[in-house]
Amino acid sequence: SYIDSISIIKGRWNRISLARLFSVFGNNTVGGSAKGHFAVSINPETMMGKGGFSSLISPLTYGGLSWNTLSAEGKYNDNILSIDMCHLRRTGETANISGNLTFLDKRILADMNLTARSEDLMTLAEFVDEIEPIRGGYDLNLYMTGPLDSLSMEGIISIDSAAVGISMLDDPIDSISLRVRLINDKLILEELSGVVVTTPPGGASLFSKLWTFLTGKKFVKGEFSGEGTIDLENPASPNFNLTFSIDRLPLKSTFNGIYLV
């Protein structure tokens, strides 16, 4: 309804199918069930007003990814939408978004913060089939500010003391440390290191016994590290400037008959 050029809008929804809703717009990658409510009184010309909202989506799916819940609460004051709470959760992993969206004439300004933490690296496995997480998680902090169509972003993601298996190799990559900083369209690889430990092929073979006799070691150990930058100014064709150091990195695949030191 309109009262002195003020729009008063209230709404409530329950058990809304996101799959059906998004399919209307030709998007078949989103799914889940949503409920919530909102109320706002606003001047449609100046975008000044007051109000608030609350919403819960459970579960939520997007493409091949799935989460247990997405819950959000916020309020609208003058021309600023404040996201007081936005939590995305699934087993062992949480993400939180907070901040403000300011509605100005023909543009929207953001001042948002994203933090995420995981006790494992299952998210990585969902994008790379060849990886099997064994140990370790990640921490992510990302700050976004400016117009939505040209956001300035700065953040960091870190992984400490992690281990992952590679489908084509017998032995995992262990003691993985990773620290990547994002500054707008540039990724800075500040730290990357890992260790691989394996046994010579054929634990009781002549080769294995000869290796132990000559080196005094039953295992072969190697390390790697890396640093550098990735320029994402053109995401379709990123510019890599990376340097890696390898110290006798052993790679063994019994299935493929490969053993490299």
Number of helices: 3
Give the low-pLDDT segments: none
For the secondary structure, the number of strands is 18
Structural class: mainly beta
What's the quaternary structure here? Answer: single chain
Shape: elongated
- Proportion in β-strands: over 45%
What's the Cα radius of gyration? 25 Å
- N- to C-terminal distance: 75 Å
Helix content: under 10%
Following the backbone from N to C, one meets helices and strands in this order, namely EEHEEEEEEEHEEEEEHEEEE
**Mean pLDDT level:** 86
Structural description of this entry:
By secondary structure, this protein is mostly beta strands. It has a 16-stranded antiparallel β-sheet that branches. A two-stranded antiparallel sheet has the order 17-18. A hairpin with a 2-residue loop joins strand 7 and strand 8. The N and C termini lie far apart (75 Å).
Outline the fold blueprint.
Blueprint: E1 2-3, E2 6-17, H1 18-23, E3 30-42, E4 49-62, E5 65-67, E6 69-78, E7 80-90, E8 93-104, E9 107-118, H2 122-127, E10 131-135, E11 138-147, E12 152-166, E13 173-183, E14 186-198, H3 206-215, E15 220-231, E16 239-247, E17 251-253, E18 258-260
Antiparallel strand pairs: 1-2, 2-3, 3-4, 4-5, 4-6, 6-7, 7-8, 8-9, 9-11, 10-12, 11-12, 12-13, 13-14, 14-15, 15-16, 17-18
